[in-house]
Amino acid sequence: MEKQHNDDLSGLLHVKNAPSTSGLGKLKGSKKHWCVLNKRTNQLEFHKNEKEASTERPHECVPLFGAGISFGSSTEHEFIINIRGVEYCISADTHKTMMKWVNTLQKQVKLKPAVTGSPGTRDSILQAVPEDEPLEIKPTHEEKKTKKRSFFQRIFSRKRSRKDLTDHVANAAQETEEKRTVQAAPLRSVVGSMQDITDKKVSCNECNLMQGRNIYLNEQVQKLNEDCENIVEDLRAYRRKYESLETESTNIKRDFVCTILDSLVDEDDSHKVTTTVPFSKKILTLLERENNETLPKFNSDGKMDLHEDRFGFQHGKRDSPLQTMLYTCQILKHKYTTLLQESSEHYKKWQTFAGNVNHHPFKLEEENLLKLVQKGIPHEFRSTIWKLVINKRVEEVVSEKGKNYYNSLIKRLPDLMEEEEIDGSIEKQIKIDLLRTFPTHKDFQSMDSGKVPVLQRVLRAYILHNPEISYCQGMNFMVAFGLLYLDEETSFWLLVAVTELFFCKTHYNTYLSGTQANQRVFEAICHQEMPGLMKHLDDLTCELSPVTFNWFMTIFVDSLPIEVVLHVWDVFLVYGHSVLYKIAFSLIKIHQKNILKSKDSLMTMRRLKKMGKNYHDNEQLMNDVFNTADPLPAQQLLQLYNNYLEEIEEENYKRKQEDEEYEKKRQKLKFTPKQMMVSISDNLDALEDDMIIKCAECEANRNNVWLCCSSDLMAQIFVLNVASRNIVPIQWQVHCKCLDMVRFARLNMMLVSTIKSGLHAIDIDKKTEVWSLQLSGTALSISCDPSGNVILTLMDGTIAFLTIKTKEHPTQPTYVDISRSPVLCGSLIDDLFWCGAANTIFVLDVQTLETTRTMRVCPVERHSVSHLVDSKYGVWSSVEGSSVVHLWHKTKYTALLTVDILVEGGLASEKKTGTLLSTGITTIVELKGKLWVGFGNGRFIINDVIQKAEDTSDDLNDAITSYKTSLSLNDIVGAIKTGRSDSKKKGPQKLGVITCSHALVGEKLDEKQLSPTHSHNGDDSTDFAMVEKRMSQALESGTDNLFLKMNQVQRICEHRVNCFVQCRNDEKLVLTCMGALNDDSSVVLWSSEKHDGREMWFAQTVSYSE
């Protein structure tokens, strides 16, 4: 510890001196003193402490002129001052402190002090010794201790000293003129103890000689010090060079990681092992070299351990290998960016701005802030800057409402919740959305997590603040995102600023009018600036709105990686909502070339969705936003927005009137079930209103039926006893949705799949979970065979194969890529596995896991195969959103039958007035020669499957002849679709085999949909030949002629029919499940009876008990 005031050096040093005979006896022993180098008097002063140094005189002063300075050996940081043969051993705390004292003292020993004060006082300076005055050099205290002479040696020594003294006096004149030659001695002995002249009286000439030597050695020491200083300067230069190279190396690493990120963005998500992802080995090698505990860790299997990023999001548990590598690259990129950031000019400017902003008011429009925010706000300053900007935005609102406004809203919440003044449906939606917000964040994973109650309070408080807007889905994301950096109250004001100040109040109203207007403005910009891209999307019947609508709804939260979203919000909070158009436009423009490479609608939509999720280069995005001209002037944007908003408001008004009229009609037509049909006990009302029956499965005895019910927050299983007609719950729950359930007969277990990629095994006898397994994706359907094989179709377009031999645990799944689309359904048929993805049916060999056959069900790829059901006639299939069913030959893989169920049942009018959800098939099952088909509007139709023994070739020829003679192409398409030709021409003709294309509700059946490789060109002979060929091939492919005949149409509620289950082998009993478990008519048992020679189905009573 040293200080330097007024050019005087001072500090606390450990001082040890010779015994009191030296004449400087006040520094006895060895202890610390506060030492001051007084350059004015050229003395080293000793004080007890620092305080005394400023008020008291020093205890001792050591003159420095002519003193010898050397280094000691007792301690590591010791140096020695030798003055008139007396050594002062002084120790510093550090080497740096020691060298500072030695270098300064070396300069002082050459300087003659000015005489101040009177002689004999402490201020007087030791004068130079006269040349004729002898100087006696005495041994040091340590040397005296080491000398141990005997009595005789001391006697002889005294005699020699007297004799030497006599000789010296006699020859004094001669000795003064002689030039004695002195051999060079080591620095320690010459400057330090001077052992070569100990016990001798030295003349002034000898003293001068010693002083000359001392000066020479001091010069050498000074030269060495200069060399040391040069070496230190060289080391500093080398260090600067090293830091420069280190910075350059970090830049190269960062660029390398960014390059790999760019190459991985367009990769497929089908990689099942991390090491198979391109460049993964190089990334893992780079990760190992960093050797940082904060970076992700990988196990021996190439899977990443659970890793939590600096925001609190958890990664690695359910991420695909490609997502894992993308995340690893992003972490490395952030690490290198952080290393480069602290020395950057941008960081220093933010440091200065953040330091001054609390003392000096600022404006949002000031140029300095606008330029700085373009490159983003550093993590350390983001919380401060966001809070200042938000407070600036809501300054007037806070002034109007009062500073304690938010706290007053919070205090009102308990009373309002008790009085139920907040709409129950809104409160329920908030509760559902709380855990949907950031499910991978540690603070949002459960209702007890740290920030979930905070999020709930903020959303409830906003409902009280603005009941007109109330709550809209998407607000939860914005508030939760704000809570990553802001406190609770500031997050509330952030929501107020976004919903009321950044956007107009219609942005988040019931119909989201403002959001729709923003979307139309954005599409207008794209049509003007990127006409080629928009034409490409129109040709593929793709739209931007399903992807980009959420961008304007939640300000890109949950649409881009967290690092990019933060940069977007930095800019948005300062520049306002108009910058969102430029950000969205730049994002589309950057990916334009990649989108144009897509050849079909499915690939296009996949690339549009991946465009945001995998994009990481926020610097490139913002450079494009701020370095390119605005697509449209601000005034024109505002005019466009107002025009579109006016149109949307008119459309919403008409829609509101239509909804009111429809509700009135629905109330008149509402079906009220009879008491004798369904009766459910009151205690079922305690269940959640949204516990929807997703699926059902019978036990082996078919007397107990398991009902798997799910809400948005949890799932539970209930068991229906068919004999007693009672429903009871089992003690098993999961906190997520369940998707499918199937009985595994080999081990008497139920297998249940969940939306969180889980597979659970439940013992049927004990009603308890046996084990659970984490899959790589969400299982949409489960199939199993008696040998223990289980096959699951997954959301990511793959199939999982596993084997279950015992109840302990299954084998690890084997994954097989099938499609880029989700595999919605699957069925094990003999040794083959049939599954449906997009518009194609895939047939796989169970032993080799190879695809043996594919069949296209319809030409449009977005029409996905939703059901595959085995039967004695073949394999039934249906398409999502369509009312058409197909029957496929099991070995020839040809269509035996294609029928529109609604048209055959005389309900074609519903297709014109209904929606895809209401008129689309939701479930199929064949039960003892009857095909049960359920729909989304609660209706189900029972059809008889009839084999026709007579030849149908005449009917086929009649249809073809009818088409040849007078029907147009559209007429024959209609005839093929309905199985009838125009009755005015040839009368009703029943086609034994009907080959028709799928025309979903609201779609026009195009001529070119007749064949994926042909289009209608106006030549009737060509079209006729194509139709005749397809009909003939279909007719020849079947061994029997089949058709469906509608037997019965039932509809007891308006809820979606989810499943049919055959119960009780000894009697015809079928269970239908639809809607929520505690709704009337949700669970109905249907029994068969003969009525006028016709088999009819009647409902029976079901009750619930705890």
UniProtKB/TrEMBL annotation:
InterPro entries: PH-like_dom_sf, PH_domain, Quinoprotein_ADH-like_sf, Rab-GAP-TBC_dom, Rab-GAP_TBC_sf, Rab_GAP_TBC_domain
GO molecular-function terms, A-Z: GTPase activator activity; small GTPase binding
Positions in coiled-coil regions: 221-255, 634-668
UniProt KW keywords: Coiled coil
PROSITE patterns hit by this protein: PH_DOMAIN (PS50003), TBC_RABGAP (PS50086)
Residue span, Rab-GAP TBC domain: 376-576
Name of one Pfam family that matches: PH
Domain PH residues, every copy: 6-110
Entry protein name: TBC1 domain family member 2B
